[in-house]
Amino acid sequence: MIGVLRGLVQTWKTHWRKRVTVQYPDERLPLQPRYMGFPGLMWDAEHDEPFCTGCQVCMRHCPTQCMTVTMMDNPKFADGTSKRRKIIDYFSINQSRCIACSICVEVCNFEAIEMTHIFEKANYYPDVVVDLPDLLQMSADHRAHKDTMPSRETRDQL
Ligand code: SF4
Ligand code: SF4
Is the C-beta atom of 132 inside 6 A of ligand 1? Predict the structure, then answer.
């Protein structure tokens, strides 16, 4: 009998406890600033081209080998409007294999790639492979909500 009463009391207390879950996808919890979704490629607005030079360092370090990168001569270097001799030609990420480890971001010497907050990308092959325009758009979408991002100094301390 005592056990039953204790159970009822516990149920009563739990009933009034503040809810911590939400009805996803209609409701969403705020993402923490350092949350890492899929990587996206950043756009150099000053030179009107991607920051990525296609150097393949990220591709060689990716533990799941889900990236494909090729570079080409930068036509803007030839006409003197960019300092980049080489520029990205083709970039794709197979998101079904990406584990959002951020190693590609850590090894990039040009700060051309960043971890976005985007994670809802479930799809079937081959649509799960995102190409250069998609990756640039992901970063642009992410930066549209950049006020949720901490500064570089703050991120280094996290
Ligand atoms: S986050 Fe990790 S797994 Fe995903 S593309 Fe970058 S290095 Fe590869
Ligand atoms: S994202 Fe960075 S490391 Fe990867 S190819 Fe582009 S410039 Fe090189």
Answer: no
